[in-house]
Design brief:
Elements lengths: L21 H14 L6 H15 L6 H13 L14 E5 L5 H16 L17 E5 L10 E2 L9 E3 L5 E3 L4 H9 L14 E5 L3 E5 L8 E3 L14 E3 L3 E2 L3 E4 L2 E3 L4 E2 L2 E2 H8 L9 H8 L10 H19 L4 E2 L1 H17 L8 H4 L23 E3 L2 H9 L6
Parallel strand pairs: 1-2, 14-15
Antiparallel strand pairs: 2-13, 3-6, 4-5, 6-7, 8-9, 10-13, 11-12, 11-16
The chain binds arginine.
Arginine binds next to β14 and α6.
Amino acid sequence: MGTPGYRDHPAPAWDPAAPADLAEAEEFLRQYHAENAAAEGLRERLAAVRREIDATGTYVHTADELTYGAKLAWRNASRCIGRLYWRSLLVLDRRSVHTPHGIFESLVRHLEIAGGTDSRAGRHARGGVIRPVISVFAPAAPGRPYARVWNEQLVRYAGYRDVDGAIVGDPAQEQFTTAMELLGWKGPGTAFDVLPLAVETPRDGVTLFELPESAILEVPLAHPEHDCFAELGLRWYAVPAIANQRLSIGGVDYPLAPFNGWYMGTEIGARNLADGDRYNLLPTVARLLGLDTSSETTLWRDRALVELNRAVLHSFERSGVRITDHHTESARFLEHVRREEAAGRQVPADWSWIVPPISGGATPVFHRYYHEADQRPNFYLDDEARQLARTGEPAFP
Ligand code: ARG
């Protein structure tokens, strides 16, 4: 019998009041010890964790357990095509940071380190050497309120509805933008205004913070041949940092654990800028390139998509900002699958997310099936977090 697919077995709803699951703790600790020859004393550690859960309802990860657990969560992220690099994740242990200001400062450092824009990076201070980073803040103690960030990503562009109903900016952020305005924020009103961070702590409620320039690395978009493309004034940010997924390691949950990798071009060129309910730029690009849009059979959408994606890759490369293309990344993902299988492990993967949104069949990841499983440690998007990122309004009980 095969392992059931996770579509049949969705991740169980998270109960923040429940004590840490002992079986999950044991499973994680066994895996951590099995994969790390240097880790010592599994028996003693298991006994100590059992006692700690009995006494307090949870247990505290060692720094090494936390680091390895975060890497395993990435390795188990079924939707991520970039997992060949899972060992390279930089894990920033922020478990002792609790105040809104402290959290904000840590998030700024996160973005600076991830984008290579921190002054300590010396000659790289202009940024572009993107590093995969995760900042892990305090775990949720059973039944106790916890800190979180409302935003879906640390960097996202606002979306404003103007008087005649058209959206300026990212339509996906329209409700969230309105909520931020109601909390007192006011953006300049361009199509690429970076939203403030909404940091919520049990003590202080929600506080808004404006990210400094050093935390926001961006790339202006130009096309390698069509000079007029630059006049569209398009841009995108360099560091995609998911901010509202819960990191779950061995029965301990970290509701605030933002993480980033670097972009694959299609995420921007074939989704964020192209989707009809996002920036919806295919008609604009087709017009700019003089394509014949009188019939679908001219494949003007496909032609516009390819040129938009070329512009994204070209612009990031020209700016020295790390990005990858879907052909290269597909081959690397299959290399990851081979390496994992050589280590005796299956790679959980979701075909519908792994296959890129353009030229799927031209990449090797299209032509096979994958092992569908929900393996922990992992990242989970809770309904409440999803709703908060969409609307900027907490669901009051
Ligand atoms: N697809 C999301 C976006 O376009 C980002 C998801 C994470 N991507 C990554 N390359 N790590 O903003």
